[in-house]
Amino acid sequence: MRHALSIEPTPTSLPRAADPAAPYLEITDLWKAYGDFVALRDISLSIARGEFICFLGPSGCGKTTLLRAVAGLDLQSQGTILQGGRNISTLPASSRDYGIVFQSYALFPNLTIEQNIAFGLENTGRSKAAVASRVSELLETVGLSAHGKKYPAQLSGGQQQRIALARAIAISPGLLLLDEPLSALDAKVRVHLRHEIKALQRKLGVTTIMVTHDQEEALAMADRIVVMNHGIIEQVGSPTEIYRYPETLFVADFIGETNQFPARVVRGGEVEIGHSAFCCATDGFAAGQAATAVVRPVDIIPHGAHAHAVNAIDRPATPQNLIDAEVREMEFLGMFWRTRLTAPRLGERTLVADFSVNAVRRLSIETGGVIQVEIPRERLLLYPRSA
Amino acid sequence: MAIALETAHPPLAGKHLRQQTSRDDRIKLGFMAVIGLYLVIALGAPLFVMLSKSLSTYRFDLTAYEFQVSDGTGANWGPVVTADALNRQAGAVAEADLSTNSDGRLAATKFFPEFSFRSPVNYRIRGVDEDAAFLVGSTLEKGTAWREYDSGTFRRVVLRPARTIGLENFSNYFSTPALAQSIYNSVLMAAISTVVTVSIAFALAYGLTRSCMPLKGLFRGILTIPILVPSLLPGIALVYLFGNQGVFKDWLLGYSIYGPIGIVIGSVFFTLPHAFLIILTALSVADARHYEAAASLKASKWRTFRTVTVPGARYGIVSAAFVVFTLVITDFGLPKVIGGQYGMLAVDIYKQVIGQQNFEMGAVVSVILLVPAVLAFAVDRRMQKRQVALLSARAVPYAPKPNVRVDAPCFAFACLVSLFILGMIAMCQVAAVVKFWPYDLTLTTKNFAFDLMDGGGWAAYGNSIRLALLTALFGSLVVFAGAYMVEKADGFRFGRGLFHFLAMMPMAVPGMVLGLAYIFFFNNPANPLNPIYGTMTILVVCTVTHFYTVAHLTALTALKQMDPEFESVAASLKQPFHRLFFRVTVPVCLPAILNIAIYLFVNAMTTVSAVVFLYATDTKLASVAVLNMDDAGDIAPAAAMGMMIFYTNVAAKLIHALIARGLLARTQAWR
Ligand SMILES: Nc1ncnc2c1ncn2[C@@H]1O[C@H](COP(=O)(O)OP(=O)(O)OP(=O)(O)O)[C@@H](O)[C@H]1O
Ligand SMILES: [Mg+2]
Predict the structure, then answer these.
(1) Which domain holds residue A304?
(2) Do residue B462 and residue B438 come from a single domain?
(3) Which residues neighbour ligand 2 (ion) by CB within 5 Å?
(4) Residue B157 β-bridge partners
(5) Where do the ABC transmembrane type-1 domain residues begin and end (chain B) (predicted)?
(6) Is A154 inside any structural domain?
(7) Pairing of strands A224-229, A232-237
(8) Among A214, A180, A52, residue whose Cα is nearest residue A105
């Protein structure tokens, strides 16, 4: 979450690795059913050459299923997959072009690290010397040159992970598939390896799909994130897009934190929350329609007790969406303060807001005090309310 | 996206995609077909033939044949008469003698008392329908066309019986009091032995897992000794101990060891290791947390035992009970040696087939014998399925604390049972090396001069070793490859399920039923596999099949412990599956493969029940020799041969342990 914050977003600065007109991997109308249970519904997705894509979603949403369909390990029920212009929809796994790293790493326990990495290189017409030099090159790439003669069980989890990665990229595949490669590691190693994998991917320029249910991981690593839920794609976009402009309530809720209020559209540009009206974009909503209004805790702007004084300095003359709120609880979380506010205008519900340490000091915000806060018009998001 | 969610019925009704098969897939499919075919030939087909045999009855249908006889010129024919009418006139064949077996033959000349093979009289014969068959010499004739023979040829005309399908054999069996009685006897013996064995096994397993008694490893070793000897051996030991010349004969208070008493004691001896190992496993996985909970609730020892220990091991106990019951009811060697006049089902088959050559009746008894075994097997399978769910992954093993009041009785009991086992073996050992127990205790090697006795001599021992080695080698190969296909080949779900079912079946098929089924199937000249009948090959095939299930499960367990993604990784690296198989799967599973090999070896050395129907003069076996020498009254040599089997198995176990250590140290450095 904080990662996204550090990148100040502008809707135009979307990182795109290659020409979107010629996707490297193209999935069209893909379905997967296990008996009566539909695990993937009508998935369509284009991935450009060299892109780093994350499949992100809660447990059981079908991420692994989609990845395995791409790999040819679990054939989809319907749908086509094109890779580099070749129709691979029904090809057996061994005829496709990819390397894969599993959550368990699946390193061969009875082979040394070198033999593991060499497994895909032998038997391919390469000379012994060529294989050996490629292996040592790969070992160097993942920084484990000293461990070539050891067995997997003698390495730490993070080292095993890197060996699995080296084995997967040894055959220079066109596509790298990673199924939760970091989830078996502890937090420190995870963050470290995140950067390593990302750097390696950039260096090799290999198109990569990584499955994860860790949003922080996805936000930090991906060029584009595919947010999935219950077998469908909820949204595809860059980390900042996903974070700033979630297209569905699910995405808003799943990525980062939210305040959610039941709301009703009064007229174009105006909604009613609790007992009062707020300004926000209402495109696509009819007057009188029920909706859920969402605002992120970090987007709430504190104005202190004397709003007009602040207004005079850095806000338009008539600030919109200003409310008075009482500070009920404050919790110091190191980089910022998390506060719980109640405001008569919002009804019974608590509003969670994150304020910078700086702002809290400057505005003398304290438990029990009454402050004025702003819910910025463009940060108040509206989603259809399901019955 | 929201639209997709609302499409409640996806366009999935159409055809699902099918993956193109890779070369690997085709090879695997071929392999599976080959091994599946092996199981069909080695198990399915013989059992089917046997079942159909048990439902078949054969009878000469005299109304189905018509004859005409010429006068002395050979040209003028008399009236057409049926064989039935002729028979009634001549009274040649009694009504009861018309029932026969599949090989039955009835000479046509019997109906013509005045027949003389030098006479100029000619004979005509035909069937009234297409099925009536007769042989002229060895040529089969069928049908309603008249056939004409001179008297010299007519002498060689024999009628063949007609086959009818029905339960007649079964009703015959059940109306024979002595035979039906043996069902009751077998069930009774099996039930008593089960109760006794399971109780003893439970007490021992309890002592080994829940007490701190000393010498646990030693007891464990002693308790598995009976697996290394044929089930005949405890019978022989009992004869020496309590038989007519037995030293402890008086202990039986006038009752005879030949009969129920001997059967139960002997059965307990040879089934104990099986029950013990099953219950030991069940108790070993018990969860320490349950005991801690019971302790914190201040439950008394007895209550803890009743409410925690017994329910935890319940599945093990039930499973052990079924195994013991099946072993006893289908065992044949022990009652043969010690059963006396007490009729048992398994011995009945032997007598029917070997003694009276009544194959149909043998098939009937086999089918009856299949019933309890299949039942036991089905219940056991269900139990094991639930047992798996019972075991939580986070179970904490229970570590007992020293307590003299528990440890001392446990130790004493283990000593007592060990004494019983070692005593039986020691008795055979002594009997094997003395001149005439118990009267002349001079040491001698004459009992090992097997070549002087009937039974096969040292050649039989050599054959047994050959059989055991071949079974271990060929069996481990087939079993492991088969289990690999079941576990690791994806797709072919139906084929794999069927294969697994076939692999589980031998557990439910008693050895002698299998042996008999083999006779029916392979000893048929029409079967292209007939040439293997009477060879070492059929003995190996039969033994591998007989012990297939346990070996299959062992292999499956080892394979299940491998990461299921190895195959996916190999495919992504474009490596053929056999490279993965030989580089990774086999080396990692080597300990399990060695265990399968030694299991097959030991069992091939001791087995009697299936092979007793299949051996030929040049493929006599040591275990069968024990049986035959005992039958001939050469009891001491029988004991000596039994001990030879025992020594061999002990040696094999030692070599196995050595190989396992040496080889594993090299190939399993990663452990
Ligand atoms: N072989 C199978 N048979 C039946 N259902 C399956 C099978 N494999 C997966 N599913 C179901 O399909 C859904 C998607 O599974 P999948 O493994 O793709 O989830 P995931 O998103 O990877 O979750 P996680 O984060 O827990 O790994 C789940 O509800 C799962 O229960
Ligand atoms: Mg998954």
Answers:
(1) 257-384
(2) no
(3) A 64
(4) B136
(5) 183-380, 461-656
(6) yes
(7) antiparallel
(8) A180
